[in-house]
Structure prediction request, 196 residues.
Amino acid sequence: PTVTNTFAVALAFADVFLGDLSQTYDGTPRVVTATTDPAGLSVDITYNGSSTAPTAAGSYSVTGSINDATYEGVQTGTLVVAQASQSIAFPIPGLKKTNDVVGLAAAASSGLPVSFDVLSGPGILSGGTNLSFTSAGIVRVVASQPGDANWLAAANVCNLLVIDGLNGLATFLVVRHLNEAEAARTACLFVHDDSR
Prediction:
């Protein structure tokens, strides 16, 4: 007689190790890596249940499952995508007069918009970027970018504007002195009054 037996063959167990679970936002998909023991097995990775790797900053539940005819195994973890840092470039417009209107311009490395504020002194800001002066004095202007879900707030950048009522040569000497003192910590815009 012919005898037929049925055997249940279980898959062998393999370990899954998830890597790159701590990353920083850069606008591209943040992909988690996986290795196995035995090595070289295929692993399917999901992020909050989706096979698409996330781009935005945040925390995501990650599951790595072996996809193999002989082995099985699964590992879970948390992918943390941190907000990226950014900086502000606030160039010096050059020497100006008290009757000039300075068009302020600055750029954040994130590409997010930069805003300006007059911290002190005889400066008036209109339209968000147009800076004019009411008298001689010292004006401090700050450029800021508060960040968003993907970007940390940028460090504020201050420009120092010196408005002097002396003649051009004397003012230039004052400007050189102040520039040497301030150069290490702030970009400086110097304005003198030769409108008289």
